[in-house]
């Protein structure tokens, strides 16, 4: 079969294109950042770096996970200004805020929260799924969705922002 030079060049060019399309390219290794986790099976202060997987308290770039098999522990944030990317406290653990501030930069979920002082700011939605309490001079700021039971008690608690209720509010 006769092929012209232009036909041969076109076929060769198409084969080269096909090889390039089908070639594999090596990429660098990719690591997914691990969340900073509470590693102690006992209660303690948010500021105690020895109780966190990173060896220090979490910061604004950290996804934070507090979920211990032992359960029934309390993490207390009593002072200082703190910010985390996101916070997940899905189990039997309790987060207590008695002072200071905590800013949540991305959507977060907490089962049990006791806010009696300081300010908890949710820049994205914070979902409360268990039993939570807002009392004394504690301040919620931002967007909170209650899907559990939220008790608003004693003192002069402050709500600045939006509270979407799909659960129960006790006042």
Description of the structure:
With 171 residues, this protein is mainly β. It is 11% helix and 51% strand. The protein contains one helix and twelve strands. The longest helix is centred in the first third of the chain and has 18 residues, at 5-22.
Output the radius of gyration. Answer: 26 Å
CA distance, first residue to last residue: 92 Å
Shape descriptor? elongated
Major pleated sheet: 12 strands, parallel
Provide the helix percentage: 10-25%
Please tell me the overall pLDDT.
88
Give me the strand/helix succession: HEEEEEEEEEEEE
Uncertain stretches: none
Indicate the structural class.
Answer: mainly beta
What is the number of E strands?
12
Number of helices: 1
Percentage of β-strand residues: over 45%
Which helices and strands, and how do they pair?
Layout: H1 5-22, E1 36-37, E2 44-45, E3 63-65, E4 74-77, E5 81-84, E6 86-104, E7 108-128, E8 131-136, E9 139-146, E10 149-155, E11 158-165, E12 168-170
Parallel strand pairs: 1-3, 2-4, 3-6, 4-6, 5-6, 6-7, 7-8, 7-9, 8-10, 9-11, 10-12
Index terms:
171 residues, mainly beta, 51% strand
């Amino acid at each position: 079969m006769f092929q012209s030079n232009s036909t041969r060049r076109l076929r060769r060019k198409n084969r080269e294109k096909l090889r390039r399309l089908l070639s594999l390219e090596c990429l660098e290794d990719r690591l997914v950042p691990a969340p900073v986790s509470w590693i102690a099976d006992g209660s303690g202060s948010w500021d105690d770096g020895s109780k966190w997987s990173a060896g220090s308290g979490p910061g604004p770039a950290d996804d934070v996970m507090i979920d211990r098999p032992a359960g029934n522990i309390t993490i207390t944030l009593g002072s200082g200004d703190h910010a985390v990317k996101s916070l997940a406290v899905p189990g039997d653990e309790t987060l207590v805020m008695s002072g200071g501030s905590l800013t949540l930069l991305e959507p977060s979920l907490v089962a049990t929260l006791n806010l009696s002082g300081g300010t908890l700011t949710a820049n994205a939605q914070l979902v409360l799924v268990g039993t939570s309490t807002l009392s004394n001079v504690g301040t919620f700021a931002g967007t909170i969705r209650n899907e559990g039971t939220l008790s608003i008690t004693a003192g002069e608690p402050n709500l600045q922002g939006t509270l979407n209720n799909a659960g129960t509010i006790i006042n």
